[in-house]
Amino acid sequence: MAIEITVPTLGESVADATVARWIKKTGEPVAADEPVVELETDKVTLEVPAPAAGTLGEITAAEGATVEVGAILAMLNEGAAPAAAPAPAAPAATPA
């Protein structure tokens, strides 16, 4: 299931922010509460965490874009990230 990553409330009288940089890239695994994007306002720089564990999907707000509170920044494909393929087991030793 896809979850929206949105611009959080930024504080009194702050209505928008600029996407400073994406910490994670599309397709990368993300843990719950792990920072995925950095936003800047005229008063503060903040990191937006992932709302759940999963894989970062489509990024809808490019670096440098101005975004309003509540705007969708990206989509998160919820669920465990694909596990790496297990290493092949060593062959059993044959008796001599």
Compact summary:
The protein is an all-beta fold and 96 residues long. It has no helices and eight strands. A hairpin with a 4-residue loop joins β4 and β5.
Topology:
Layout: E1 2-6, E2 16-22, E3 29-30, E4 35-40, E5 45-49, E6 54-59, E7 66-68, E8 72-78
Antiparallel strand pairs: 1-8, 2-4, 2-7, 3-6, 4-5, 6-8
Overview of the molecule:
- By secondary structure, the chain is mainly beta.
- It has no helices and eight strands.
- It has a single domain (2-78), classed as OB fold (Dihydrolipoamide Acetyltransferase, E2P) (Beta Barrel).
- Strands 1-8-6-3 form a four-stranded antiparallel sheet, with no helix packed on it. A four-stranded antiparallel sheet has the order 5-4-2-7, with no helix packed on it.
- The protein is elongated, with a radius of gyration of 19 Å.
- A hairpin with a 4-residue loop joins strand 4 and strand 5 (45-49).
